[in-house]
Amino acid sequence: MSLTSKIPSTPEYPSFASIFLILIAARLWVSLTDLSDILKHDQQLSSPLTSFSQLKEGIFLFNHDIDPYSGGSFRHSPLLLSFFVTALPSSRKLASVLWTCSDAVGAWALVRIWRARQNVRQSPRDVLVAASYLFNPYIFLPSLALSTSSLENTLLLLSIMFACKGKASASLFLLSSVIHLSLSSAIMLLPILLLLITDPHSHIASPKPLSTPLKKAIPLFGEFVAYMVALTLTSTLVAGSWSWIPQTWGATLTLPDLTPNTGLWWYFFTEMFDHFRPFFLMVFTVHLFIYVVPVCLKFQHDPLYAVFILLGILGTFKPYTTLSDPGLFLTMFAIFPEIYPYMRYPIVTVLLHLHASLLMPLFHHLWLSQGTGNANFFYASTLVFACANGAALVDCIWPGLMIAIGPRVEGYSIVQE
Amino acid sequence: MDNTNVETVPKLKRVLQKFQKIFRSDANIHEKRIQRRLKLVNLITRRLKAIKIILFVVGYLWMVLIPFPHLGRGTYIDENALQPGQVNTQWNWGDVHVADRYLEQLEHVRDANYTSEQRATWLREEFGKLGLSASTQSYGFSTSTSNSTGTNAYAIIASPRHSGAEAIVISASWLSRIDEGKGTINIRGVSTILALAGFLKRYSYWGKDIILVISDDYLEGMQAWLGEYHGVSQSGKSVRSTQEPKADLTTGLNAEPLKLASGVIWTALNIDYPGHSFSHLGVFFEGLNGRLPNQDLINSVERIARWSARVPVILYDHLDPREDAPANVVFSWMPKTLYEIADVKSYLYQARNVIRNVGYQYNGRGSGVHGLFHQFRIDAITLFAVPATGPHGFHAIGSLIESTLRTMNNLLERLHASFFFYILTGPQRFLKIGLFLPSAILISVAMMFHGLSTWVDAAWVQEDTDNEVSEKAASTTNKSTKWRQRPRPVIKVLCIMAVTHIFGLVLFTVISRPLFISNYQVLSPITFVVFSGIPLVIRLIPQPAPPTGAAPASSVLKALNLCFASTVISIITVLNFSLAASLTIPLGVPLVASSTSSSILLRLLKYTVYALLGLGWLIFAQDEMVKSIWYWESLRVWFAPFICIVYVPLLLQAGISCIL
């Protein structure tokens, strides 16, 4: 809050652009080492829907006139396929450069979001915000592993950035392409529409009903539907038939590939009897969407905050998560410094994340490399990770509500009726 | 609860409401709940010190009690498919004679001072004479500590009943484990393998390929053989195979590719029979990096030895004083009558086993050649024929191996069943994971509690702007008014922690240089002085004054240091319990005890203690250091980098928090 009052004056801060370039150069240097080849197959960093090797397989099949969607291995969107077949490189080194650039764009978008929220042209916190995206290990590692979830994050951040700037068409187009890449991101639609009809500034401390009529969002929604339809038709054109839909969106909804990942779905559906599957698939999917309306209602005065919370829900509960999904949510903490004093147990959350991020690779190793553990070990560690993400969610919802009441007064406590 | 329409409320609900009335009375529910929560928090915080002490005491006591004879249970076979000892063995005195003949020839080979290559060629020819496909493999090892070359010989008995997708290895290293492979030749072990080659080939019931490996040297030969076996032919490990070329460059291993290959190796038996005869069979089982083999393998061997081959099995070379009178140890500090109490004797015997286990496991080196197999997810043990004047020889060990192979042949899937976490206190007694893991976890919890309480305490400061008198008056009525919250310099402390870990990385890079290794006796003390001195020097550089009113960096550093150390300990427990348990000694109480003091001299003294605890090995354990580096460079045992990058920085942080 105090930062908003500071008048931006360029010479006082070390130049953001130069530091930003140094950060990107460091990222680029790491991404060009052999680390990428080691991490490429790590199941915590890329899921079957985002893995680079599966993307390459799809490109190979496509180039050899075989429908990549006829098998069960390629589950990327036709949009990605068409980009990689025509315009973008598929060699490892060039791909590493591309992924780093994508992260750089994402970090830049995050900085723009931060500036838009503070309504300043520059601030001393810019570097910290950029670094928290570029050097968040949860974002860095999937990007090194060339998981396409990094690209999804960038597109989503760009979409939010344009929404903050009020550029409806760009924002909605990018959002519809994100949804094409990963269907679960559809939960971001409502908060982004709200963001478009209001402003991104911090109103978190002064809750009030939505001032602009919701009617304004209807044409925007129409525009979004138009983009979705256009992209769907493009995808069909690329793939040559409708067969891509069950392989990409369908995979999100029916979970055909139970490769372990950091999420909560795979183990549950591995253990389940087949006749319960459709019901629980419905429950899990609905559960993801159930939060959208309440969160948007509660934080209608600050839709960017609703975006933040829903990102956390997406990172915790979506099918086929990689580390970059919760990573994006955790990085977003950097642009809401006003909530820090109201956070309840930040150290507990941090320690939970420390434990989870050490336990997950360890138990993965015990199960799949060393052979002394089993699937339950890794699942237990993903549960710890889910708890850590849940704690982080509580740590953003609680202060988001408490900030309106003001600082804690000794001897008083607040309860919800 | 409001008065709802009584008629419509079912009876059960009414009863429930009555109960609720009793428990909740008429007061505000929320108020009650808040008071209850406050009471609970007060209860815990007021007794926090006692809780911490209890956790520490129980944790350490538990560790001491691990060898207690009434803890734990008897071993059992978990995998029903194994059926140990259910077959009639065919190994007879004729085969023993064959083994004796091989022994004579090997003695000639030994006395004629054959080179490694000549020896391997001879072994290959012997395997060839039996009609087996056999080959040799030359290798060279060059690390910053040592160089060695050698040649392995191996042969494969192709499975007559199967495609050879799986394999069992029987191996013998040329040098015995006595004195850690310093020169005693495992001559009868090698003869056993040769005799078994001809024997096993005669039978048609093998469902898995049997690979016979006679590796050169002690560990090096087997490492070269296994590395090539898995780098080239086991394509199932795609991740490993991509790493292998790089790993080979850094380990300095230069091995010839294997000409013959077989399937996935599931189990391996390593035979170590250096003496003339043996009285007991010792089982060595700890693998590299603290991995243990599936307990079913050990239990099967133990049962077969006991019931089929009639050889007593012991752990390591520890004779059981309860069964062998000569094994009784006389402790000068202990009266003989006390020692004769059954439980005391059992405790001391089991403690000896547990300590030996910890010694092999904590530094990740494993207890012998079988340990190398563990890198590739192969369950392996060494059978050590404890040298004695009798009564057992080739007959016993041959039939034992035959029966064990038959048992392993029964397996249709890898040994699994979570039977990998145990502490063997005796050949027939063990502790399950739940009986030993909590000891280290309790200590880590105590450290976490202390870290969290330090963290919370750092956020509060007593206001002393008011004069003393009024404060005293206020303290009785309203204590909380004089406490003020203050910011904690987290970023600065995290930077200090990150720098210490980078510092550890630098330390590791320095001590693993060939230049350092070749002059380590001179350079180690210098390194100790330099690396423990740098934080002091940095401390002397004038720093910008901390913002007034902020918490001191030292207490925040201590809090985060404890939290991190606790996390490290609790996570290492599942990977290598012995290491975690050993870490609780230098990290547990010492880190909790760190604190600043007003006197500069005392601060420096404290820092020196932590520096010695963290870096003292540079002075006091130089040979161990060089060995650990060798193990890292050639076998990827991560103990040395772990000590440098995690352990040393943790203690340095505690030291720094004393001088900050």
UniProtKB/TrEMBL annotation, chain A:
Main location per UniProt?
A: endoplasmic reticulum
Concerning Pfam families, the annotation shows:
PIG-U
Q: Which residues cross the membrane?
A: 12-30, 94-115, 127-148, 168-197, 218-245, 279-297, 304-321, 350-367, 379-398
Q: How is this protein situated with respect to the membrane?
A: Multi-pass membrane protein
Q: Which GO terms describe its cellular component?
A: GPI-anchor transamidase complex
Question: What metabolic or biological pathway is this protein involved in?
Answer: Glycolipid biosynthesis; glycosylphosphatidylinositol-anchor biosynthesis
Q: Which InterPro entries does this one have?
A: PIG-U
Q: Which UniProt keywords apply?
A: Endoplasmic reticulum, GPI-anchor biosynthesis, Membrane, Transmembrane, Transmembrane helix
**Gene Ontology terms describing biological process:** attachment of GPI anchor to protein; GPI anchor biosynthetic process
- Where's it found, cell-wise? Endoplasmic reticulum membrane
> What protein family is recorded?
Belongs to the PIGU family.
Please report the name of this protein according to its UniProt entry.
Answer: PIG-U-domain-containing protein
Tell me the organism: Psilocybe cyanescens
Automatic annotation (TrEMBL), chain B:
GO CC terms in record: GPI-anchor transamidase complex
Keyword annotations from UniProtKB, A to Z: Membrane, Transmembrane, Transmembrane helix
Keyword Oxidoreductase found: no
Transmembrane stretches in the record are 50-68, 430-452, 490-510, 522-542, 562-588, 600-619, 639-659
Q: Does the keyword Secreted apply?
A: no
> What GO biological process, any one, is recorded here?
attachment of GPI anchor to protein
Pfam families per record: Gaa1 (PF04114)
**PANTHER family for the chain:** GLYCOSYLPHOSPHATIDYLINOSITOL ANCHOR ATTACHMENT 1 PROTEIN
Put simply, this protein is called: Gaa1-domain-containing protein
- Source organism per entry reads Psilocybe cyanescens
